[in-house]
Amino acid sequence: MKDLRAVTRKVLRQVEDLSGKGIEFMREDDLPVLTTMQTARRGAPYHVVRYRPSNEPLDYFIAYQAGEVAPEF
To answer: What does pTM read for this prediction?
Structure first.
């Protein structure tokens, strides 16, 4: 997502650096929550952030999800 704040992008880069996996974003209009993040497992090449479009900035929610993934690595 290109409209994320610099600090949020920094958190995501840290997750990528620690895990050695990239992060992909998937828009889901019917997602029941604003964001979810699936950790790359079983040889998956990237983590997946699913997000529901919103007028609200999603930075906080995405950074929170990424923070939950980072301790695994």
So the answer is: 0.85
